[in-house]
Amino acid sequence: MNAPVITPFFLRNRLRGCDRAVLATLAHDDGRGITGYPAGALTLASFDHAGQPLLLLSALAHHRKNLERDPRASLHVELDAPPREPLSGARLVLFGQAARVDAAALLARILRRHPEAERYAALDFHPFRLVVERVHVNGGYGAARWWRGAEFLAAEVDGLAALEADALAHMNADHADALAAIARHAGLPGGDWRMTGLDPDGFDLCNRNAGLARIAYAEAMSASAQLRPWLVALARAARGA
């Protein structure tokens, strides 16, 4: 990873393209003598519009119980496919405090990204958000940097979250051909690509066979009114390629 591209916008798009991560919490005393030890757990990863992690956690899971006693946590995300030299790949760690969020829109955002998790949402699983305080990125040997959460996260775009569900439904129902062209232009395999999430940095596409793909805008969005013309421009460019 070259230094000029290590910007929050670039990294947020890389981060949003990841579907799993390792959550580290502080273990509580459960009779096993591990109180205070870092406890890691593999988890599905989703992100809110700012880029903060959204996690669907079971009431039975030790990491959720840990968070309910001490909300401090970190989330380690591999940004690259496993490289030949494991430590040469880019990875990112988000530090913050996790809290349960009972917001239907955030749960829907998680389930669109991970539809296989829908069967758990009706049980004892609930969404948690990691409120990011610090971010550390390591782009390989000698390429590391820290950000404060406010420096790293995307600025709020008024109205974007409110129109997301309708925009997704419209694109998937009426513009499947445009999504297919955008996917093809991005070098993705053929198939039924559906838009499953959008945010100030870009949008997510999902294909049942190929999985998740991330399409980034040229720059971060500053107004929700930009959404339609940007999507139209992307589709035209893809069809003309």
Give a topology summary.
Elements: H1 8-16, E1 20-26, E2 38-44, E3 46-47, E4 53-58, H2 62-69, E5 72-78, E6 91-100, H3 104-113, H4 118-121, E7 125-138, E8 144-148, H5 149-152, H6 160-174, H7 176-185, E9 194-199, E10 202-207, E11 211-216, H8 227-240
Antiparallel strand pairs: 1-2, 1-5, 3-4, 4-7, 5-6, 6-7, 7-8, 9-10, 10-11
Helix pairs in contact: 6-7, 7-8
Structural account:
The chain is an alpha+beta fold and 241 residues long. The protein has 2 domains: 150 residues, Electron Transport, Fmn-binding Protein, Chain A (Pnp Oxidase, Chain A, Roll), CATH 2.30.110.10; 81 residues, PNP-oxidase-like (Split barrel-like). The chain is globular, with a radius of gyration of 18 Å. The two termini are 27 Å apart.
Entry summary:
Residues 165-234 form the DUF2470 domain. InterPro entries: CREG_beta-barrel (IPR055343), DUF2470 (IPR019595), Haem_oxidase_HugZ-like_sf (IPR037119), Split_barrel_FMN-bd (IPR012349). The protein is built from 8 helices and 11 strands.
